[in-house]
Amino acid sequence: MPIFSVFRYNPEDGSDAFFQEFEVPEKKGMAVLEGLYYILENLDATLAFRSSCRQGVCGSCAMHINGQYRLACETQVAKMGNFVRIRPLAHMTVIRDLVVDMEPFFRQYEAIKPYLIPAEEPGDREYIQSQKDRRRIDHYVDCILCGACYGSCPVVATDEKYLGPHALMKGLRFVDDSRDGAAYERLAYLSTDNGIFRCHTIFNCQQVCPKDLDPTGAIGKLKMKSVWAKLRGKLPKTG
Amino acid sequence: MTDKASGQGTLGWFLQRISGIFLAFFLITHLNVHHLFHDITTSGLINFGSVQENLSSSFWWQVFYFLFVPFVVFHALNGIWAIIADYRPSGNAAIFLRAIFWIVGLVLIVIGAMTLINLFGGGV
Ligand code: FES
After folding, report:
1. pLDDT digits (tens, 9 = 90+) for B59-79
2. Out of B1, B9, B88, whose CB is closest to A197?
3. I want to staple A48 with a disulfide (CB 3.0 to 4.6 A). Which of A97, A137, A190, B81 is the partner?
4. For position B85, which CATH number holds?
5. For residue A50, which atom of ligand 1 is closest to its CA?
6. Distance between CA B23 and CA B57 in Å, rounded?
7. Coil, helix or strand for A87?
8. CB distance A60 to ligand 1 below 6 Å
9. Residues A63 and A178 reside in one and the same domain
10. Residue A54 CB–ligand 1 contact under 6 Å
């Protein structure tokens, strides 16, 4: 029977954080999230964690499982061996057990203006985008904002103003979108001291991304785009 | 994008790469000319005199080394600046540090240039 060693912390009762062990009967094809539900329903109803879709779509269940940030719902217990150690996402305040305060994460995301800024007044028909243009952003649209990259990034750990891999990659998603009209303004903002040039190309985000996306590569592309815009005198001033 | 943010790192990042490529070229050439393929049985030991003689053979060596020094200094200080930027110095501290970097950089370039003038001018 696999042992689940789960991070417990309740700021309200004033005690320190600790790891609590639970024995979870294994079923074939069982995911770590299922194990957590087993604990919640049968062993300890006070355990707090986030989840929703149970199929790797909503991004609620990212946590640190046996040494790596993963989605609990997509991680097979059988692949983790007999000992599963679970911690919450890093670099954010723990609200309780495995639940962290995602406010900084979404604040950074909001800062890059994650919506289309069209060049002209919107007409009354939908925007046309060719399949080729759409394929350029396919990869980045897939991000489910789970926070695995954010938790794994050492730059995020030391710098709370850093936009973070998720926001920067979503930045490229809009810079590269053929329907968006604010690419240079976006690049200018992403090139400030909070943005792409604080990335030290550590590749943690790329390694942990449960959707196999490549935030590091996206940041690299943004750096090149920023340089070209600068050399052509198109990068607006900021600050 | 009206959020308040500080300056951009685009140019510094770009010049760091460019100067890095130049430095790779400079260093390989420098090592080749002075160290790697120096045969002591025919050319004798490397010393100030031999280097001086070697480099006086062409005007282009002067161009080469007068470029080498500022590139090294720029690459080094810009690199340290990139590390400092991670610690986000406040506005005044950043201005103060930048001033220090400029002074240190210029002093180093002047010292390097004086050495080179000495070398190419035939002094010791
Ligand atoms: S529960 Fe939705 S991604 Fe895991």
Report:
1. 888 888 899 999 999 999 999
2. B9
3. A97
4. 1.20.1300.10
5. 1
6. 22
7. strand
8. yes
9. no
10. yes
